[in-house]
Amino acid sequence: MANQFEITDVRVYLVESEGNGGDYFQQGKGHWLIDTLIANPMSGYEKYKASRSSWGIGVMGSIVVEIETASGACGIATGFGGHPAAWLVKNHFRRFLVGEDARNVNKIWDQLFRASMPYGRKGMPIATISVVDLALWDLIGKVRGEPVFNLIGGLCHDEITFYCTGPEPAAVRDLGFWGSKVPLPHSHFDGEAGLVKNIEYLAAQRAKVGPDFPLMVDCYMSLTVPYAIRLAEAAKPLGIYWWEEVLHPDDIEGYRLLKQAHPTLTWTTGEHEYTRYGFRQLIADRTIDILQPDVMWVGGMTALLQIAAQAAAYDLPIIPHGSGPYAYHFIGSQPNVPLCEYVAASPDGRSIRPVFGNLFTGEDLPQNGRLKISDAPGFGMEIADRGLLKLFE
Fold first, then answer.
1. Which of 57, 98, 171, 303 has the most Cβ atoms closer than 10 angstroms to its Cβ?
2. Sign, CA torsion 28/33/38/43
3. Residue 64: which residues within 8 A CB-CB, separation 6 or more?
4. Nearest Cα to 300, choosing from 131, 122, 98, 75?
């Protein structure tokens, strides 16, 4: 009898429609994610500061990886990377998969990571490994008839609570979410006038939701240490719940200075850190209060579990960035407070829409800001319409 876990084929597809798949930013014109004014790494350039789409935030596009075994079972996952990622899966990573036992996820992950070191280590190559890894976990769950959360330790929580990232915190509150995260409009490039506008904007958001509703601020890698210190000081009366990704992801020393200046405030980062080595220093320095790796970017579930083990030794909570059901299974399995991010996927950010658009059936959605995790096998999702996909050949 053939080994039901033996991998016989690996297929990779390009997602050919906007709003579907694992590239959060591959959205149509007018979607708040790409057209809302937000301080960002390109804010110093007038031509590109108003819209993330202007400087190409969604240019990579989405892929779907499908891994099939000798028994005909298929595991699927989506992520970003477009043509370059698809090329890597087909022409490089496939050799470490076909003929292998799908349960050997640690071995496969290690081989993918080591083999890609000459050109990878962070960014798109690691995100491509993420998609392969998530497809493997989905496959194992489907063959065993078990949800992924059972494969990684079982449930600590059968229900999780959401905050929502979007442009309208009052709408988020009315949808039942625990809290809201809003984008910071201006960076240090906008000078004193921009600082005043930031405080006015945050004060207006606080006024909309009242004093007790948790309000977080996403700074999207856009600020400097002196500016962030001044901004946080000026905003203290507003009761900001946390300040997110204030600095460049590699400015570890900068985060130490922020924590020294404001030790009682909560600082978070991690969505643009891609390896356990990068997280090691963030964890050991104790300058970050909450880690936010993206399971679709950091190397998949295998890598996220490695990072979580490091963080546990320092009692640091992990609240993953976005990632839909991939994050839900992780959060449900961890003893930390079961708080999860939902990135408003609807164009106006005022309603609930599947994170991956119309790509999958079975994607769980929060209701009234909460969700009971499905016990469907794997991540519980199947491709809804193969007409959305183009096989990469």
1. 303
2. negative
3. 12, 13, 15, 21, 22, 76, 77, 78, 131, 359, 383, 389
4. 131
- Do both 161 and 293 map to the same domain? yes
Report, as an integer, the average pLDDT of 30-39. Answer: 91
Give yes or no for a contact between 114 and 103, defined as CB atoms under 8 angstroms apart.
no
- Give the tokens for residue 267: 């600082």
In terms of domains, do 20 and 88 share one?
Answer: yes
How confident is the model over 309-338, as a mean pLDDT? 96
Q: Give the phi and the psi of residue 83 in degrees, each rounded to 5.
A: -60, -45
Average pLDDT, the chain: 96
Number of domains within the chain: 2
**Confidence at residue 358, expressed as pLDDT on a 0 to 100 scale:** 96
Tokens 């460049």 locate to 248
> H/E element holding 142?
helix 124-144
CATH for 24: 3.30.390.10
pLDDT at 117 over 50: yes
Sheet of 62-69: strand order equals 74-80, 62-69, 7-15, 389-391
User: In Å, how far from its chain's centre is CA 305?
Assistant: 15
The single residue of 186, 188, 272, 321 carrying the catalytic annotation is 321
Q: Kindly report the backbone phi and psi dihedral angles of residue 153, in degrees, each rounded to the nearest multiple of 5, phi listed first.
A: 125, -5
Is the pLDDT at 391 greater than 60? The verdict is yes
Between 23-27, 101-105, 123-127, 268-272, the lowest mean confidence (pLDDT) is in 23-27
pTM for the model = 0.97
For residues 99 and 160, state if they share a domain. no
Whether the Cβ atoms of residue 271 and residue 294 lie closer than 8 Å to each other = yes
2 has a pLDDT exceeding 80: no
Token pair, residue 168, equals 């309208």
Active site residue 321: yes
Q: How far apart are CA 361 and CA 386, in angstroms?
A: 12
Cα–Cα distance between 45 and 56 in angstroms, integer?
14
The token pair that represents 1 in the structure block: 């009898």
DSSP state of 176: T
Give the integer Cα–Cα distance in Å for 246 and 231: 11
Query: What's the rounded mean pLDDT across residues 35-55?
Result: 91
Whether pLDDT at 9 is above 50: yes
